[in-house]
Amino acid sequence: MAVIDTRTTGYRPPATEGLSAWVARRGAAFWVVSVLLLVMPVLASPFWLVQILAYSLILGMVALSLMFLAGYGGIVSLVQMTVAGFAAYLVAILGDSAIAQISLKWPWWMAAPVAILVATLFGTLSGALSVRTEGIYTIMITLAIGSAFYYLTLQNYTIFNGFSGFNGVMPPVFLGVDWGDTIPFYCLTLVLAALAYAVVLYVSRAPFGLALQGTRDNSRRMAALGFDVMAHRVAAYTFASAIAATAGVLLVWYQRQVSPGTAGVGPVVDIVIIAVVGGLTRPIGPFVGALVYVVLRTFSLDMLEGLGLDGRRYQLVIGLGFLIIVLFSPDGLVGIWQRLRERYRRSQDGRATQMRIGGGEP
Amino acid sequence: MSDFIARRPVWSLVIIIAIGILAWLVFSVWTPGMEAMMGRKRVFLSALFNGITLGALYFLVASGFTLIFGLMRNVNLAHGSLYLFGGYVGYSIGTLTGSWLVALVAAFVIVAIVGVLMQVLLFRWMEGQDLRQTLVTIGLSIVFADLLLWNYGGDTFQVTTPDWLSGPVQLPFVVALRGNGDAVMMTYPFVRIAILIGAIVLGVAMWLALNRTRVGMLVRAGVDDRDMLSATGVRVQLVFVMVFAFGAGLAGLAGVVGGTFQSLQPGEDTKILLSSLVVVIVGGMGSIPGAAVGALIVGLAEQFGSVYMPTYAVMLTFVIMVAVLAVRPQGLAAARR
Amino acid sequence: MSLVAATAGSVSSVPGRDALASASSANALELRGVSRLFGALAALSDVTLSVRPGERRGVLGSNGAGKTTLFNCITGDFAPSSGIIRFFGEDVTAFPPQERIRRGLRRTYQISSLFAGLSVLDNVYLACRGVSRNRFSLLRPRRDDTLVHAAENLVEAVHLAPVKDRLVGELAYGQQRQLEIALALSGAPRFILFDEPAAGLSPTERRDLVHILTSLPAHIGFIIIEHDMDVALRVVESVTMMHNGRIFKEGAPADIESDPEVQELYLGGGHG
Lengths: 362, 337, 272
Fold this sequence. Notes:
The complex is a heterotrimer of chains A (362), B (337) and C (272). In chain A, the strands form two sheets. Chain A has a two-stranded antiparallel sheet. Chain A has a two-stranded antiparallel ribbon with strand order 2-3. By secondary structure, chain A is mainly alpha-helical. Chain A has helices at residues 19-25, 28-43, 46-73, 80-94, 108-130, 137-155, 182-204, 207-217, 219-223, 229-255, 265-278, 284-306, 314-328, 332-357; strands at 166-167, 173-174, 177-178, 257-258. Chain B is mainly alpha-helical. In chain B, a hairpin with a 5-residue loop joins β1 and β2 (183-189). Chain C has one domain (18-115, 174-267): P-loop containing nucleotide triphosphate hydrolases (Rossmann fold, 3-Layer(aba) Sandwich), CATH 3.40.50.300. In chain C, 35% of the residues lie in helices and 22% in strands. Chain C contains eleven helices and ten strands. In chain C, α5 (120-130) packs across α6 (146-157) and α5 packs parallel to α7. Chain C starts with a helix and ends in a 5-residue tail after the last helix. Chains in contact: A-B, A-C.
């Protein structure tokens, strides 16, 4: 099932491209954004740093996990947020929280890695269940798995503490730094998100990523070239789930709590919206989408009332915005950006050509 | 059915034995020993019938969903919103006119019109882009949910059962024996029996329409091979609009039904959608008999689960879904491709 | 770079020289009593044929004769309803496609079946990867990687070097057909199925195609489905004619061409 048209320009860099060549190709936008992100702690208030930026980076990571499967694999999986939620729960259950009768009080350097491992395994199994069916079923199956997880956490009190969930889940203190403090937490999130972004970019052109793109474009041909298509798809789920699980650990440290609503149907659908609005074709898309979403959500009340509308109609705004993007720019905000850049570049070329011919204006 | 038995003798035997045991449980008088082991027969019978009638409701919703997917490959995730919208509209019209039947028909017609608009204004421009259509339905469901919340608020509504349907009816199943040896017969709300009969009638009518009419044949051909359908020269878009309208109308009608014996509130749209997903995954996509089988299984599983293992009722449904996916991913009633 | 060199050395999981020697008495491809039913339609009925290693066979017949279904059964897109398929002596009837490919079978498609979102070099690289180890490798290949070299050599051999970094979606039709051939020549193929490789090609391109097919190394056998008699009869040593899902005649190209039954049924109003 082809997701979105992934063809952008006609040129593809060879898989053997080295780091220096890649750096040389980066445009102005990359450098501006990177520098901004690095100096943010100096410029922004704690609210902006954590509630907006760090939260966007975390949601962006979960959406990146979805984008990896959808953009490179043609698999639209809605289970990524559930994987993140599961990892969040596991940190609370295995580590320390205010729910003393359930939490096992493992140290964070045991709880977090185990949480990521188990949640990744869960994601892999979900993938194994959905790969044997036609592409469009994946959305249904993963949504059903996500909702089953929600009801499990809601109704089970022995492990998941039901409706209340877990609170008092604190980020660790390590190397003399409280990683729950504003600047350390922002840095931690930034580093992990940047790492996830870089790994996705790198792997996309490694044999694994290329093969995955092959299964997206033409799975029948992949089998006729000697690839085990099912195995590749399940492996893709494993890779994506590892990213989502890591984001889940960050999420529970950000919220200091986890409850059934963390991975309910609402958040699950929100991640799809973030990924699609940002753009499923490039790994930066999910982060762009996450930032837009978080800003809208945080300021919607003020924005709507400023326009004289009912402040509680936030969901309506999100839904309409999402519809507009899907109807008019299916490759999301990143797609709009790329088209604008193409048009700018073409007009530049046009003017340059005119000047060479000697007939145009400077 | 005869070739089903011929092809799968072992499964047929298992099913026959299971039905036999079920019949014995239902019709016999339970001894104190049995009651000690399995709880009271009244509870069992009520769970059984609640499950079957809940299955009837799920069938109404899921059959529309599966028809739309089967023909147009459109996973309509706004189906739950159509259900809730139909329920609310039915409630409003019911309180306005005082007639349950009028509400039922009006809900069907109004939601069918919404379905026509959706297909004509949106989906026909995205022919073949399955994922994009599904994303649009997600967006629509969010918009609808908020509009409904805005208009009807967060209260719970219930559609009043009309007088001619209310009251209990006696069924020929013995619940227990009184001290003097007289049998206590089971009583059950008439409205639920009526809805069950209605769903069966509707299901049979749909099956007949699909298998015995020309339009039905076109729809079935389109489900198997969409390109072939356009090759027959028939106006494909017209067939699509009709099917979408019918599917949507069914959801609206189901909303009134669900509003009668359950309730209507924000969040019902998501719940019914998720149940429909499991029903069609278990039963098989694009298949009306599949929707019936799946609805029955899911309805029974949910009711028996909530009575006998309340904490894990949802997990039972989920385990069934996982088992079907692992063993027969295309669904129980679907033809093996 | 010649085709012989391009198709010779790549890391692959094809059995070693000894296994090849012992299997040399076996046919490269053997079908016995293969049938394939689609509901009530018998697309293939009791097809029995054998092809020796290195043999060049043509399968001809009108549309609907079952030729593409035959290929689909051989590659494993679906299992036959009955019958056995052997590849170099091994029973592959129940094997999924990737297992057959890893044993040296290759195929081209009548309608180019390529990876539109990837570059030409990526496409060929994937084909080389598919039959080698480390398909799941998360590490990018280094500049001196053997498989990358093999892919580049192959791209050169089919004259696509100038466009090797272009997206496949932007290639001309003839170039896409050349890429189809390149994919089939990757790794170390032992037997190739060509499905109407000349379809839609200009006369010059057809001459190129004939040249490529006739200069393939001698140990690589192939079956070619083709409607263009000029191309087909120039590259094959034997012909199998199919009609209504059955094999109805086999023989040397000249004999088939002059056979009256064949002329009536198929060559009818002149060929070309």
